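Appendix B, example 12.
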Amino acid sequence: MHRRSTLFPLLFTCVLALLHCGSDSGKDGSASPSLPGPGGGNDNGGNTTLSPNAELNGRYVQTILIDGERFTASAPGEEIEITFAAKGLSNVKQFEFRLRLDPASAFDFSASSFVPLQPFIAPPVSIEVTEDGLWRTGGASVTQTLEGEATFGTLKLKTANGFDANTQVRIQVDFFSVGPSFSDRDDYSSNDLKMGVVVNE
């Protein structure tokens, strides 16, 4: 886990500009280590056993989890919904997920979306594909600070042409970030999380 010292990506600026950046007085003032690139430390070979939840015990969240037990689809044009929630939130107004989908071609990116649950709102483009092929999404609250338990939102993935009941897709949370402002958030890598699901497992 790393404490964030860089600004949130430009894609989210239009949303996060509405927020008060808040005070960084909660930081200890120590130098933050350089962040690894998304997927840093991940073998990307599908060997890691994925769990639907991760115990983080951080400053701003204790546990993140994926609702649901089984995710299936059998044909193109079907929608798979993956809902992200959290427990033990403290002083949270923003979050970001980066997902590694293998194979990403199993889904129609243009027809997929992330729908945050109030009070969170998403940027105009709710999912962005990063240079390293990760699917990045997130949300921010402009009305309240989240405490305790909350649902972040639902990822709606539309299956692509060629998808059938034998298609397996590994969806791994490669990166997660959460906190009160874009300059004060805790970041977690794939090694911290070991979290995700397999469609048609």
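The chain has one domain: 2-20+51-191. Residues 13-16 form the longest helix (4 residues).
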